[in-house]
Fold NAD-dependent 15-hydroxyprostaglandin dehydrogenase.
Amino acid sequence: MAQDLNGKTAIVTGAGSGINFCFARLLLSRGVNVLVADLALRPEAKELINTHSKDSPRAVYLKTDVTSWLDLSRTFQVAHQEFGGVDIVCPGAGIFEPPYSNFWRPPGQLPSKDDPQSNHYACLDINITHPIRLTQLAISYFVSAKPKVSPTNPKSIIHISSITAQLTLLPLPLYCASKHAISGFVRSLAHLESTLGIRVAAVAPAIVKTPIWTSEKLVMIKAEDEWVLPEDVADVMVDLVEKTEISSYFGENAEQGEMIRIGGGSVIEVAKGRLRDVQTLNDPGPSGPGTTASGMAELYEGVYGLLQIEGWGNPS
């Protein structure tokens, strides 16, 4: 299954910045209308929406709290009103286990904003529950739309996993758990492509510098480590919509790479200059440029320092 882009409509959560902004911008350049669903917009996103506010393809901003199921439902209503339908959905919004929702900064203790009486973590609401619910809403919309989704009228749902879906990092247990969950969720829906024409796939970016990186996380990246460009991740996300195979290398070296088959259930790792099809079982794991964080030991030390605080884990 491959989906033609021109004239289609996409809903992208978290498109106010980072990878999802780059994805929205690339979709617009390919003739796709985009509903940008986010709590706020960075200046570059505001400019993008202003540029595409009138002429086709258009971009529309909808202020969206992805932890609100009502807000998620509203994205489909608005996209249908503005563009007449929905063809591509990206539940891209996510957070990198910030201090306000962090396993090592328990609910009820500053700087956590998680309420010990609420029975949930914001990090998991955003990183797991939101993409699962938005996917559910997308499938519901696709199967009831006219014309109905089918292998000859395909639709796509593109998720953002991470190389941390294959790692176990003490300082980031909620984030790692959420990305493990996303990869498993995407693979569980693989069969929808052959039966209904709905492709559910994911990118698994390596280390990408975006606004979700806080100063306390940046200490893990040293001079010898390399960043992956958010634009490269966005390129692969578009490939997951419109192609059935891609080269394992970027740019000038693309012809030298092996071809990777892509489709429903695919999880494609995006490292520095190369791609990899992440296997469900017996996968060797991420390696090479763009996948290393040489200062991770400093975050481990920070965790053990927090555990020395008297009363850790007891709400104040």
